[in-house]
Amino acid sequence: MGNKLRPVIQTKSALLMRWAMVGMVLFGVLSLFQKPALGADFPIPSIKLGVEPAGGPEDVVAVLEIIALLTILSLAPAIMILMTPFTRLVIVFHFLRQALGTQTSPPNQVIVGLALFVTFFIMKPVWQDVYQDALSPYIDRKISYKEAFQKAEAPVKKFLMLNTRERDLSLFVKISQAGRPRNTEDVTLLSLIPAFVISELKTSFIVGFMIYVPFLIIDMVVASVLLAMGMMMLPPVMISLPFKLMLFVLVDGWNLLIGSLVKSFGMY
Q1: Are 87 and 81 in contact (CB under 8 A)?
Q2: Is residue 62 assigned to a domain?
Q3: Please, which pLDDT band fits residue 105 given cuts at 50, 70 and 90?
């Protein structure tokens, strides 16, 4: 008898569990439509999007300024990389790490961070001129947007022209078919910025070559000594690494390198 009643009891318990779950679901659904108790009313914020008529020209100008600011912020990484010394600095630092043979030391975060703050240091005079001559008067409503852009363009062009090779600039001027510029003001940023970028790439590769030469000599000397001693299975890089680090530290390499790079831009 016990064995015959066991399936019946299991079936009834399963039905009870199902009805209990259905009751809990119904209770939860009904509780959503009941009014909340006093002190438990939590307002839900609503979001509305619409187009309303502007109260005056000032409202339209404010909206356009916000759109322009968001556009500039989206282009900030490209501006930082292509219109500042950041490109030359970070490439030279990577060449230095490869010449030393330290693999991932210093890590990429340190190299990028150092290049970023050195970029801020070099560009400080340019950004001060932009703020004093263009941004501050524009914020105070003393000059128009067009005048502010023209005054901000002047120090930036001066820096870019100072570090751009004439041959690189003439390449983009010829391609654009804009005619030979008579002075700096006639050169457009669309031609000047790519010319500045390829000039920076060439300069950084030249500096990287000059950095590689002394460390390459150490590698060759160590390889020759190991070959003469018959230690052909011993990697020369493993032996030359301490000597390269010692040479770099003894000559105060970071001081010399950063000082030379900062002075190479002609801002100090």
Answers
A1: yes
A2: no
A3: confident
**Which pLDDT belongs to residue 14?**
57
HSE, side-chain direction, 13 A CA sphere, residue 170: 5
Q: Evaluate whether residue 257 is within a structural domain.
A: yes
What are the C-alpha distances in Å from 55 to residues 40, 58, 60, 233? 40, 8, 9, 82
Rounded mean pLDDT of the chain? 79
Q: Is the dihedral of CA 46, 47, 53, 59 positive or negative?
A: positive
Q: Is residue 71 part of a domain?
A: no
Tokens 């457009």 correspond to: 188
Q: Which domain holds residue 155?
A: 85-264
155-172 pLDDT, tens digit each: 888 899 899 998 998 888
Count of structural domains, the chain: 1
- Asked which of 74-83, 116-125, 164-173, 205-214 is least confident by mean pLDDT, the reply is 74-83
Instruction: Please say whether the beta carbons of 134 and 148 come within 8 A.
Output: yes
Cβ 87 vs Cβ 197: under 8 Å: yes
CA distance 169 to 83: 14
For residue 1, name the pLDDT band (cuts at 50, 70, 90).
Answer: very low
How far is residue 84 from each of residues 22, 132, 157, 248, measured CA to CA in Å? 67, 19, 11, 27
CA distance 153 to 161: 12
